[in-house]
Write a structure and sequence with these properties.
Bound molecules: pyridoxal-5'-phosphate
Function: Decarboxylates L-threonine-O-3-phosphate to yield (R)-1-amino-2-propanol O-2-phosphate, the precursor for the linkage between the nucleotide loop and the corrin ring in cobalamin.
Distance between the termini: 22 Å
Keywords: Cobalamin biosynthesis, Lyase, Pyridoxal phosphate
Order of helices and strands: HEHHEHEHEHEHEEEHHHEEHEEEH
Number of domains: 2
CATH topology of the largest domain: Aspartate Aminotransferase, domain 2
Pfam families: Aminotran_1_2
Pathway: Cofactor biosynthesis; adenosylcobalamin biosynthesis
Cofactor: pyridoxal 5'-phosphate
Radius of gyration: 21 Å
CATH superfamily of the largest domain: Type I PLP-dependent aspartate aminotransferase-like (Major domain)
CATH architecture of the largest domain: 3-Layer(aba) Sandwich
Strand order of the largest sheet: 2-8-7-6-5-3-4
Largest sheet: 7 strands, mixed
Length: 365
């Protein structure tokens, strides 16, 4: 049996336990761009090694100026983080809310971040089978939201892949603002969606109690570098967070890479080309299995429910393919899984092996 794990992406450890060579295995459990590190970023990081002899700029001026121009906002609207995940803990520590309302199933770190500051976690279950929400459908659930509370949303949502419309999000955030409540909106996977108006960033200055978190680790395939940022139109939130947190949590290699990443339009174009093909290929391939109920993907991963009895993660791991079981997300049971979309050959291998596993199942009863 492979041991249950909290996050995806720990292939090296699991391979060592199983006695596999990591290079013989394929990791579908983490949602990382399979194009890997771009050449421009690799060259940049190598060049910048010589600058590791000095401390990074504690105010991250160059990167924040770049973000301001890039998003058409002000440098004060941004703060870099050591991966998006740091932002959840920083914000929780700064806000110290009595209650954190979380639409679940979703990324597990929100719960941990707000629980760590003593907040009461109020789970709002998203309803099966679609796991979507509208402002109208949430109003009753959120009736008890009070001033100073926070509602946490992930768009597109991990692990379900559902995307909320900008108008629904805007209506919700405005309604929360009128109650004096905050919205923490995690847009870690939004770069994978090519639509112009998917993000709420352009509305930042209009919605004062909104904090948006972005990750650069998934789209640009550098989870080991740790880089993300938070954005808000609130006057003091980010500066207070910066002063509260230890200095230099974002290292020089990460901070200096930000302009290089965002300017790398060639990598971005190649990513969209790969994703358009492979998202459709893997989605159609998975949908063809009658025992899987597959959710339409929006980003670089696919979520599905398995209607049979087998432990799919274990069966696939026996063939050195690692997928994410969603058993530990609140609201999901053992039969939910998530797979990251990878290269064509790797996706084809997944469909082949899954086909064998599901075919053999017919002899089970
Ligand atoms: C929805 C979501 N947000 C944030 C993160 C963390 O991203 P980072 O690597 O930038 O800390 C993850 C990582 O899996 C995630 O799934």
């Amino acid at each position: 049996m492979i041991k249950a794990v909290e996050h995806g992406g720990n292939l090296a450890h699991l391979a060592a336990l199983a006695g596999y060579e990591p290079t013989d295995c394929i990791d579908f459990s983490a949602n990382i761009n399979p194009l890997g590190l771009s050449r421009a970023v690799r060259n940049h990081l190598i060049r910048e090694l010589d600058h590791l002899t000095v401390y990074p700029d504690v105010k991250q001026r160059q990167a924040r100026d770049y973000l301001a121009t890039y998003h058409g906002l002000e440098p004060e609207n941004f703060l870099l983080c050591n991966g998006a995940v740091e932002a959840f803990y920083d914000f929780a520590r700064w806000l110290q809310p009595k209650r954190a309302w979380i639409l679940e199933p979703t990324f597990l770190e929100y719960r941990k971040a707000f629980a760590s500051t003593g907040a009461q976690i109020q789970s709002i279950p998203l309803k099966e089978p679609a796991f979507t929400w509208t402002f109208e459908s949430l109003r009753l659930d959120l009736a008890a939201v009070q001033e100073g509370d926070v509602v946490v949303l992930c768009n597109p949502n991990n692990p379900t892949g559902t995307q909320s419309s900008r108008s629904e999000l805007e209506e919700l955030v405005m309604w929360l603002g009128r109650r004096g409540a905050w919205c923490l909106l995690d847009e870690a996977f939004i770069d994978f969606i090519e639509e112009e108006d998917a993000s709420l960033l352009p509305l930042l200055q209009k919605l004062e109690k909104l904090v948006i978190v972005r990750s650069l680790t998934k789209f640009f395939a550098l989870p080991g570098l740790r880089l993300g940022y938070m954005a808000t139109g609130h006057a003091t939130c980010l500066e207070e967070i910066r002063q509260q947190r230890p200095p230099w949590t974002v290292n020089h290699l990460a901070a200096s890479a930000l302009p290089v990443l965002l300017a790398d339009t060639d990598y971005q174009r190649r990513t969209y080309e790969w994703l358009a093909k492979e998202q459709a290929y893997l989605y159609q391939g998975l949908k063809a299995f009658p025992s899987l109920s597959v959710h339409r993907p929006t980003a670089n991963f696919i979520f599905f429910r398995y209607k049979g009895q087998r432990d799919l993660r274990q069966r696939l791991w026996e063939q050195k393919l690692l997928i994410r079981s969603c058993w530990n997300y609140p609201g999901l049971g053992e039969n939910y899984y998530r797979v990251g979309i990878r290269s064509h050959l790797e996706n084809r291998r997944l469909l082949e092996v899954l086909g064998e596993v599901l075919e053999n199942e017919k002899g089970d009863s």
